[in-house]
């Protein structure tokens, strides 16, 4: 065989091997994502903090009783947020005082995001990943 044919066959084998390795890597990556999402859910529950139920007045004079589940990124952050309970209550009262009854029907997600951002400004150990409303009663 000529030198050119040997070089082409070698190049073709290398390209096929790299292609097969890439496909295996991508398939493996997808399987790991499925497992990590289950672990993530377990971690979310493990490192969650349930805020105390808070009752406060709103901008339009109505009242709300609300409670949040705060998801942290680890045990240190979970312990810190439980120590910052008084600051959490303060943030909630201030943010809720700006809202009226209609805001709870249309902008609850925005409230959760604001609370998350405000808490992350205070955190020194870890961070807040997400905030979920778990109890809400308007009066």
Automatic annotation (TrEMBL):
Q: What is the lineage of its organism?
A: Bacteria, Bacillati, Bacillota, Bacilli, Bacillales
Q: Matching InterPro entries, A to Z?
A: FliL (IPR005503)
Coiled-coil intervals, chain numbering: none
Q: Does the keyword DNA damage apply?
A: no
Which organism is this entry from?
A: Ornithinibacillus sp. 4-3
Among Pfam families, the record links this protein to: FliL (PF03748)
Family assignment from sequence similarity: Belongs to the FliL family.
This chain's protein is named Flagellar protein FliL
The entry's localization annotation reads: Cell membrane
Described by its record, this protein's role is as follows: Controls the rotational direction of flagella during chemotaxis.
Q: How does it sit in the membrane?
A: Single-pass membrane protein
Keyword Transmembrane in annotation:
yes
Q: Which GO terms describe its biological process?
A: bacterial-type flagellum-dependent swarming motility; chemotaxis
Keywords, comma-separated and alphabetical: Cell membrane, Cell projection, Chemotaxis, Cilium, Flagellar rotation, Flagellum, Membrane, Transmembrane, Transmembrane helix
